[in-house]
């Protein structure tokens, strides 16, 4: 009897534990595949507006806490913050949206004329570089390019139309979000303290302190970065709209309204803004090459000013993510969630880095090459020892 009890109390071999873990992971993945279509996919389709509401509540909660500390009740603080947000949103809609809509209508109305202008300019560029194109065995006229690459051009055009149609359908299908997001955000703000306390209460007691510390660190980095970058993006859009409108660009409001969104995408967004600005300046008649080059280079100049002066003051400097890791996060975010994934890539990578630092603190230690003072002392050579011994004998 005693021998059987000792065998039952012995720990399982590590190989058996690893095998059991792998079997559990495979079984879990297989179960997820089975329930993806009937359960997981509908949840993922419904979840985005509620996820946005959770993020907004998380970002606005510090304002509620500040009002609560000065004696304002939680419900009144939620009402003040919510009403302020609605007033700012309504003002933006009343003053900016009609003008942006007018420019969009004008762009749609003049699309054929702009297409002809682009075609004429392309013909002019091909004619000026005909000798180089002949040496490269490439077509020298736009008609030759169209006939030679007609299938590719049709494919690109079809893809572009599909993307535009899909975007319009997606926007129309998300009109209900305008109702869901504000209501869900207000309810979450009202009960945010209770939700946090409930999550902490459900955490096992032996891991509770570490869980609270981890959530506090990750939430601090993620929240401060996202709040700061939202302010920076709004300022970037307003400055771009003002400068491009004063410069006489026909579609300055449209370009400026989306420039702040693209500013949130490191490395890639600024080049998109420059290309769009260049195209808008090219199709606008009555201006020379200098005007086009000036407007094309302006977003790049503004990006540099914001990167070195405005963003560090508001956001508080770098998030501490290595450039290679940032590029990987951008590529992964774009592959998984498109533009939204690229925007969220940097704060998510920074939050994961902080979480990893909480779990394994040594990973955040700064290390570098040893200085001369840090190097261990050299041991005396054997020849010197022999010499010393000979001298002592002498």
Give an account of the 3D structure.
This protein starts with a helix and ends with a helix. It contains 16 helices and no strands. With 394 residues, it is mainly alpha-helical. The chain has two domains: 122 residues, no CATH class; 157 residues. 81% of the residues lie in helices and 0% in strands. Helix 2 packs across helix 3 and helix 2 packs across helix 9. It is globular, with a radius of gyration of 31 Å.
Give the count of structural domains: 2
Low-confidence stretches: 385-394
Strand content: under 5%
H/E series = HHHHHHHHHHHHHHHH
Tell me the span between the first and last alpha carbons.
78 Å
Structure annotation, total helices: 16
Radius of gyration: 31 Å
Shape call: globular
What's the average pLDDT? 75
> Helical proportion?
over 70%
Structural class call reads: mainly alpha
Largest sheet: none
Number of strands: 0
Topology:
Blueprint: H1 2-9, H2 14-69, H3 74-95, H4 97-109, H5 111-128, H6 130-135, H7 142-148, H8 150-173, H9 177-190, H10 192-202, H11 208-246, H12 252-263, H13 269-283, H14 289-315, H15 323-359, H16 382-393
Helix pairs in contact: 2-3, 2-9, 3-9, 11-12, 11-14, 11-15, 12-13, 13-14
